[in-house]
Specification:
Number of strands: 3
Oligomer: single chain
Number of helices: 5
Number of domains: 1
Strand order of the largest sheet: 1-2-3
Radius of gyration: 14 Å
Distance between the termini: 48 Å
CATH architecture: Alpha-Beta Complex
């Protein structure tokens, strides 16, 4: 399988990896067929305009080269974005950032966007309880 230089760079030097203590939202997603599992953690703050933004983001991924690279890419894409902007991120955005994925690995980019969406949903649910 041939991966782009960007995929290999993010796999070998992933960004924002690890767990987060007391996150505002957590999204967990897994694919039982390939075995990839991602936990995505977000901390929400406010920007100068008072809009909620993803102030910090971490991801813990167990999976293949593409799963690690795409989960790293989603953290870079989402960090600093408003919640609304982050919710609009697509797997195509991730594929573009990693400069392409083999067709059989596109599902990894879908997992990454689903993990982010679940973390945002979890944040919104937790916020209502406060």
């Amino acid at each position: 399988m041939v991966y782009s230089k960007k995929v290999m760079e993010l796999f070998q030097h992933p960004k924002n990896m690890g767990e987060m203590k007391n996150p505002d939202g957590v999204g967990k997603i897994g694919n039982p067929i390939c075995g990839d599992v991602m936990w995505l953690y977000i901390r929400v703050g406010k920007n100068k305009k008072g809009k909620e933004i993803i102030k910090d983001i971490k991801v813990k991924t167990f999976g293949c080269v593409a799963a690690i690279a795409t989960s790293s890419a989603i953290t870079e894409l989402a960090k600093g974005k408003t919640i609304e902007e982050a919710e609009k991120l697509t797997n195509k955005d991730i594929v573009d950032v990693v400069e392409g994925l083999p067709p059989q690995k596109i599902h990894c980019s879908v997992l990454a966007t689903q993990a982010l969406k679940r973390a945002i949903e979890n944040y919104k649910k937790n916020k209502k309880r406060r």
